[in-house]
Design goal:
Blueprint (H helix, E strand, L loop, with lengths): L19 E2 L1 E2 L4 E2 L3 E5 L10 E6 L2 E6 L4 E5 L8 E6 L5 E5 L4 E5 L6 E5 L11 E2 L8 E6 L5 E6 L4 E6 L4 E4 L16 H11 L9 H15 L1 H4 L6
Antiparallel strand pairs: 1-3, 2-7, 4-5, 5-6, 6-7, 8-9, 9-10, 10-11, 12-16, 13-14, 14-15, 15-16
């Protein structure tokens, strides 16, 4: 933890060993932790829980109690990497092993394949669902509204955009996307299910929703300094 006012740095979790072990604070093992993100949902206490990826797992850190636990994914992911949280409380996780993107229910660990084959298939293809292809999708970020996610596709040297409603991946025109979070009443699983049942094709032309997605990213970039949540002391 870094105090942004004083610059003081304090270790709050991890014993420094190369092991993944649940525990309290400095007794826990957090091997190769990556990108901690605050958990957001309409019912969650702000800035109280972090999720992050670690070697072969998704971990949960309770800031108040110091407890570090492992989310039991069903099925398991070998190399979960990028992670972010939608306004409705679902986690979006990229897997560098299967070159795919997943939705995770943090309450149950249930895993849903959103985009990619889930079978370690590498490539570069813009498309919907299992037709899209990546090569080492690493970090990702969810837009303010939760309608889209931006993914750093490392080996393809591209930024990819996923429209959550249609699971469409395209190469993003945006070079940077720094997003924060807003409230959203419709859970991601429900919106994806509704879209899949009603949509039979996706146009390659710009639509009003795509303009809204880019507006989300632009708004997030301009409001980063004023809207960033305070880090807990």
């Amino acid at each position: 933890m870094v105090d942004t006012k004083t610059g003081d740095v304090k270790t709050v979790a991890g014993n420094g060993k190369r092991e993944s072990m649940d525990g309290i604070g400095l007794d826990a093992g957090v091997w190769h932790p990556r990108k901690p993100v605050f958990y957001r949902s309409p019912t969650a206490k702000p800035d109280s829980i972090l999720f992050f990826t670690s070697t072969g797992s998704v971990r949960r850190f309770d800031i108040e109690s110091g407890a570090v636990s492992t989310l039991k994914l069903k099925p398991a992911l070998l190399i979960p990497w990028g992670i972010d949280c939608t306004p409705s409380g679902h986690l979006i996780v990229s897997c560098a092993h299967t070159n795919s993107i997943y939705s995770v229910d943090p309450r149950t660990g249930d895993l849903e394949l959103l985009v990619g084959s889930g079978l370690r298939t590498r490539g570069f293809t813009d498309g919907s669902g299992s037709a899209a292809r990546f090569n080492s999708p690493l970090d990702l970020v969810v837009s303010d509204s939760g309608r889209c996610a931006y993914v750093a596709d490392k080996q393809n040297n591209r930024i990819r955009r996923m429209k959550v409603l249609s699971r469409l991946f395209r190469t993003a025109r945006n070079r940077k996307c720094v997003a924060r979070y807003a409230s959203q009443s419709q859970p991601i699983a429900d919106t994806v299910t509704r879209a899949l049942s009603s949509a039979t094709s996706v146009s390659n032309q710009q639509t009003p929703s795509e303009s809204a997605d880019r507006a989300d990213a632009k708004s997030a970039m301009s409001g980063q300094a004023s809207n960033s949540p305070q880090r807990p002391k």
